[in-house]
Amino acid sequence: MKRRSFLTHALVAGSALTFGAGCIRKIEPAQTNERQADNPGNSPLSGASITEPARQIPILAETDVLVVGGGPAGVAAAIAASRAGAETYLVERYNHLGGLWTGGLVLPLLSTHAVDKNQQTKQVIHGLGGEMAKRLADMGMAIHEINPVVDPEAAKYVLDEMIRDAGVKMLYHTWGANVIMEGNELKGVFIESKSGRMAVLAKVVIDCTGDGDIFHWAGEQYDEMKYHIGLVHRLGNVDRIDKTKSGYVKMDIGGETPIQSVNWVNMHGEDNQDGVDMLNLSRLQMDYRRQVWENVQKIRQTPGHEEVFLLDTASQLGVRMSRIVDAEYKLTLEDTMTFRNFDDVIGISGAWTTMLYKGKKVRKRERPYWQIPLRSLIPKKTENLLVAGRCFSFERELVEDTRIIGTCLITGHGAGAAAGLAVRERQAVRNLDISKLRKLLVEQNVWLG
User: Fold this and answer.
1) Any idea what DSSP says for residue 30?
2) In whole angstroms, what separates CA 83 from the centre of its chain?
3) CB of 263 closer than 8 Å to CB of 238
4) Which stretches within 20-109 are classed as H helix?
5) Residue of 142, 176, 159 lying closest to 98 (CA atoms)
6) How many CB atoms lie within 10 A of CB 417?
7) What was the pLDDT predicted at 19?
8) What fold, for 61-120+152-225+322-443?
């Protein structure tokens, strides 16, 4: 690795290198979808701008693979790339890994199973997702074989240990802030932290931000989908509810977790919400915290529930969907309902809910497993970039399947393996020998059908 100390400065904006779409600039009234998130439409300063002086930025590292975002997709991507022999950095803005799975308290690992061609229920998520689930189950920190529910603190610990064991270089408390472009090639990413603004240069970058921040700054086209946003919380002492008490009424206390006295409670939240508008997110955060608190007080005032208490609210707001990249291939609902085979398959996901297909409801126990092609992770224009997690390329009708934890683990694992192989073979990701990628994925225990 070529290191630069924090005090060594290099002018990365010089020569042919340029900032991406997120740099400070004059903002025009009409914006394409590549530009919208830089200036929320309901901002009181809409249309205003200020010029930031040019400055030299220290290069923290030059590495093989840089993963931005430490949710399920990012963790899987970083481990897979590192296990493939690539030096890998992982950037995460919070103080933990796992994203909405852990910090968001969305505890079920969906969708581990689906129906095969013989109409038999089959486990489809193996690889790193299966490894994580097994480790947690062996610790007594996961319940249920199908779609296991985990303990968030145990999961944070396990993911940390897996990252450490894989040799990934971890950067916590750090935001991806912009991209460094040379023509249509992504050369690296600017990061922001308490240590200041720095740059990490990489041969391959994997966008696991969930909201597609990297491909947005790089100028890729995408669909921006508004969806319902919620806030999960946990209740304690649920095992002390006295159902024999006079006046007892059954209350909604959520679902069980590996801790006997603790339940997790999901929230649908408001529909049609913008997940990349910080003013909107700030409003929802405050409204939802009040809503959770007041609801728990109602539970506590209900006979038999006096000892129930609010254990915690999620440290991450539950943004379910925002940007969806326009990649080389857009996965379709038809693909997922017909056992469509792809030569460049990188993994298979399952089913967790009823889906509408050709005007009919297809129940979870009837739904087939479905393949994900590498092409749906490769943006059309930007070189050296892969996309994994809930913002890879798919039709909107697939949102309930593509945004969940299991699918994020699958796309992350595939992207990380592809990035590691691209570095090893000195090839662009879009030019990889797919047979070599399949071989590597099978070696890493991914099931390809």
Assistant:
1) S
2) 20
3) yes
4) 72-83
5) 159
6) 31
7) 52
8) FAD/NAD(P)-binding domain (3.50.50)
